[in-house]
Amino acid sequence: MARYFNGKEVELLAPAGTFEIFKEVIEANCDAVYFGGPSLNMRMMRKGYNFTLEQITEAVQIAHALGKRAYVTVNNLLNEGELEEAADYLRFLESAAPDAIIVQDFAVLELIRQLGLPIPVHSSVMMNVHNIEMVEALKELGVTRVVTSREMDLASTRYLKAQTGMELEYFIHGDMCSVHGANCYFSSLVFGMSSNRGKCLKPCRWDYRVKKDGLVYPSEYPLAVKDMYMYEHIPELIHGGITSFKVEGRMRDTAFVLMLINAYGDAIDRYIADPVGFERAKDRDLLYENRKRDFSTAYAFGRPGLSNINKRYEGTGKFYSTGKVFSTPTEERELGEKRLNEIKEIWSEFSPSGKSGTSRPEISVHVNNVTQAETAMKAGADHIYLSGDVYEPDHAFTKEEIKQLAVQKGDVKLYVCLPRMMTELQFEIYDGLLSGERLPIDGVVVTNLGAVRKFAGKGYPLVGDFNLNVYNKLSAGFYHNMGVTRLTASMELPAIDLRALLAEAPAPMEALVHGSPALMYMEHDLYENTEVFEPVGEEDNTYVANSILVLRTDKGESPVYRDVHGRNHLTLAKELCLLPLVRELKEAGLEVFRIEGTTYSPEQLATIIAAYKAALNEPDRTEELFASLQPVYAGYTLGALQFDGGAAQANTALSAPQAETAGQR
Fold this sequence. Notes:
single chain; about 675 residues; alpha/beta; 28 strands; about 35% helix; globular
């Protein structure tokens, strides 16, 4: 089955969570169905869902007999222990012959290449593809279709299609996230449940209090987005260059999925048959009456602002069908002696990596302004990263400031960081900066695959930032082969997985060890709440200046910084602090210890750098140094490092009622 309008293919892509649902949905008014197998996909939380290997084979055969397509999700990030399983699974999928697999981790592409498997690949929305350079890089890697970033508007998709010719897949209905794909680490660092591994506990749907300037605003669920709804915009989707119209809902029941697919399928058919007389709203009431949350067109027609946020409880942590709460605010774990000893014991079981002692571990510091950069230099940092997402009220680093810092740097290495999300305009801007006169810098910190492709040939060494989500040796090797000289480990890695990565990585590795890194990176502007709503109370911030917006629950306060591009960065309530583990990290082969310095005063930053320098030089003093270091914010946490990871964590983190509710999101 295939649909075409003016020579453009239009595929309606339906979800299926189980084989029984698949058998009904594949007969419905769709062109293709996507589903997950028994492992390595992003929907592993609900018992009884996903397909067995035998069911995958049968599902592909059924789809093909009907002239339809079947896609299998292999869209998790993989840890070291899952690489062999992934290789076996990919060999099986070659024999099952789905029309494509949907992939997030570049380790999967590496495995396909190494094994010589002719499996068609589509990039997952979790690759967060958002610019031409990324699409061209994926095309060169053999990827045949891209699921676009959720924040991409239809004017951009049309341009992307025209420039690259790549097939584009676009979410048209269902549950959306308020954070850029694969750039949300909240669930990992608070629960040990990675949103990039299909285990998110949805802190975006908690009840928060918004505070700024000593005032409280009536925005109880400021991150809880509405469901995507593009039923009335079929013409715009086709005109926007979209090939595949994707419906979210692998955890939904049969009746709900069938209702959606038949309504959208009918709308597409009616438009193709009579575009001028197309009745946009024919089944609008049916969809609205059966909604799980209220509806929004999200970013399809531009930045939606507060209109994208659901004020009614079914769009929050309470579910429309049951009223049960999916998850509740949870305090970030304190850095405790018991957990520290457990981590040390885990790492003592590893044999030496062979990397320890090969070089003196160094310190890198990510800074927000010139004063912080100068402070970090004087304090003895080895690498200074000039932020590409500078927090207001500071301004973006100018070329003159970069030159002035270069004069002062001595043996310190200086780097320009790129923004985490890069528009076509930003590529032009940074291309102009890096293609003109040679800058007196020592490298560029890259944040996405497109930037690696674009700037690898400019003559500057490349350092991979943490949001590349390097989780295993194959993804590290992938980026290293692309020209990245040093990589930052994913900050979602539990202790056992970080230790394994450090032992196996084919490139020098860096890791975040201190600071308040951004847990959520979003286009959604939380500051708009304070500009639109009238305050309902007064309350000062506890740990940061009142000028900084804070999201508060009864468990803590998370500062939110707005950068010079208008994007928001929600940070930890506590400070990440791995100072007590300096010896273990050093012995494991960590080569660069990174401090997120953007939110500290110069004095605070100097103290932190001095503590880590002393600990690296004299590991026996670590306990003394940690005892003397006072937290700036609400205490210290080990972040994701303190969790054990793996399937066992998923089974124990949820009670039975919560696990069942998790499947309804």
